[in-house]
């Protein structure tokens, strides 16, 4: 008790500078909630691999549940996790942000992590991928390689920043380029996505950006049949055809899962809304197709290096990375 009193007195004398209390909680077991499935070869698959990365690092038990979308489903799953001594829960998507905020106070010994939403709870964190930049550079590559000066973008949701970045990057590369955009309002509706592709292809688009986990690969397969170009999404999808996939906008989800788990285990995982981009290795571009001129690939990589240093895109737009908001 005397030592603790002395430490407290020292903190008061120092004005609490450098004496911020860290969580004494170490990582035990880890849980994962997935809106769709871990077998989508996209976003869900990456979340599962992130979970396995944590298991490999810490040797702990990990658990996951698929098709979890409602508050009641989340509550039931979290209560099951609680019985299995899970104290770090990942909700692999934006839909979990509000739900975690609502239930987190009932599970004070757990820390909840979601993606792309906005949170406020003391034991809740939302990770944001700064994906506007990766979309911008991929858009430059797509515009460079378009022979018809006509691109087709197939988005899953209205709010995807990588879509806005892609369009802006394309117009930076070729100011008069035409960009068609179709929002599917689903991460996995193959039928709608392929229908959108066919309409865009019929109207003259020759490079496509299908940005939606479950439908990216089927659309790229259709693009390949037409001997056109595509930009991959979430994963490096050059293995689908290096002559087809110009590059990919990659979210390094596994790396972020490991990073978050490390921070939590060290007592350094902050609550609030955190944003990571190229500089933190949370996002990147995938391998470039040999169809892309080597000189242009070199230019893009130089532009990315400059962006990491300055935060400025090639058109002069400043993008803020790192922490959006932190709550202690």
UniProtKB/TrEMBL annotation:
Official protein name in the record: BMP family ABC transporter substrate-binding protein
Membrane topology, from the record: Lipid-anchor
Keywords, ordered alphabetically: Cell membrane, Lipoprotein, Membrane, Signal
The keyword Lipoprotein is annotated on this UniProt entry: yes
Residue span(s) of domain ABC transporter substrate-binding protein PnrA-like: 28-315
Transmembrane annotation, as ranges: none
Organism, as annotated: Fictibacillus marinisediminis
UniProt-annotated location(s): Cell membrane
UniProt-listed SUPFAM superfamilies: Periplasmic binding protein-like I
One of the record's GO cellular component terms: plasma membrane
Domain of life: Bacteria
Family: Belongs to the BMP lipoprotein family.
Matches recorded under PANTHER family: ABC TRANSPORTER GUANOSINE-BINDING PROTEIN NUPN, TRANSCRIPTIONAL ACTIVATOR PROTEIN MED
